[in-house]
Amino acid sequence: MKKLVIVEPKKCEIIEVPTPEINDDQILVKIKYYGVCMSEHHAWEIAEKSNGIDEGLGHEPMGYVEKVGKNVTKVKPGDRVTGLFGTGIAEYNVATEDKIFKIPDNVKDEYAIGEPLSCALSAVSKCRNIFPGETSIGVVGCGYMGCAIISLLKLRGAGKIIAVDVNEESRKNALKYGADEVYTPDTVPAEYLAGRDNPAEGGLDLVYEWAETNESIDLAIRMTKMCGQLCIGAYHTGEKRLVDLQLCGVKAIDMLNTHPREFHLSQKGCQNALDMLSSGKWCYQGFPVKIYPMNKFDEAHTDITKKYGIYMKSLIDCTIFDGEPYIFG
Questions:
Q1: In this structure, what CATH number is given to the domain that contains residue 213?
Q2: Which domain holds residue 44?
């Protein structure tokens, strides 16, 4: 089978490796898509490898069951699946029943990437109670994850959602998915800020940070009101972030990391997200997705920091090895 490997910083190649064998408790999945995640961007930039064989790349799978072990009852060959498995971007990958989830018939392949959807559900599940029609919430960074959070917060009855992004198209997307007001980082009104000069005035009850920069963390801290909660959703990689801990202390804000490291939360998140998409309770399909063949993986990561909201999610098509990217949806 074909597999993607890092050969040097910002450069990957496709190589041939044996197709994995499965045991009686495993599932062989023919991968259609892997989601491109910003959390892997730094590893690609510096050619960071896990065990020397690039096992760290590719954790957002979607595909079709090719073969099952004799003890497997949850899925069968031909089923469309997603989940929490993945050890490298390749044509095939191996899963177990606890990490795989069937995709409902009415959820399209391109929107059925379960792992990031699970992260979004975790982010709104871990935060403080939201009082319907009352709680004021900020979202800094309105890409795929930021807009997912906005749409889920709307479902939970957020009183007011203030979204911030540097890109005009991203701000338009935020409005589409439920934001009440949108701003660039330098135009956030004073009433939504509680900085060193006015820590006890202004700010929002709850602020999510999804932009993965030092500047976005700084802004999110200033937007969090006295005794409010800051939820860090972005997975910060690379250089250490320098933040104003004195301001955090003065305002006594509660800082929360939203990642679902408890495996049972990830499992629940995957299944619940698929169920909500299928039922129509969560309307998070139909947005533009840019799809890259395997040979354009480097281009996908080069583009990831400059999507500008024109498309919201990038996918690697593991069934196409040579070609040009295109936008779906």
A1: 3.40.50.720
A2: 2-117+262-328
Q: What is the domain count for the chain? A: 2
User: 313-328: string of b/e by CB count within 10 Å (b at 16+)?
Assistant: bbbbbbeeeeeebeeb
Distance between CA atoms of residues 274 and 202, nearest Å: 38
Rounded to an integer, what distance in angstroms lies between the CA atom of residue 280 and that of residue 43?
36
Residue type, 49: K
State the maximum Cα–Cα separation within the chain, in Å, rounded to a whole number.
66
Residue 294: CATH number of its domain: 3.90.180.10
Residues 166 and 267 in one domain: no
Half-sphere exposure (CA, 13 Å, Cβ side) for 64? 10
311 CB contacts (<8 Å, ≥6 apart)?
A: 287, 288, 289, 290, 327
pLDDT at residue 48 in the model: 72
pTM comes to 0.95
Over the stretch 127-167, which tens digit does the pLDDT of each residue have?
998 999 999 999 999 999 999 999 999 999 999 999 999 99
* Segment (H or E) for 183: strand 181-183
Residues 186, 172, single domain; the answer is yes
- Please list the rounded mean pLDDT of every run of 10 residues in the chain (329 residues): 92 94 99 95 81 68 99 99 92 98 99 98 93 96 98 96 98 98 99 96 98 97 98 94 96 95 92 98 97 97 90 98 96
Q: How far apart are CA 61 and CA 6, in angstroms?
A: 19
219 and 169 in a common domain: yes
Rounded distance between C-alpha atoms, residue 316 and residue 31, angstroms: 10
Is the Cβ–Cβ distance between 325 and 296 less than 8 Å? Answer: yes
Calculate the CA 133 to chain-centre distance: 27
Cα separation, 316 vs 294, in Å, equals 6
What φ, ψ does residue 90 adopt, rounded to 5°? -155, 170
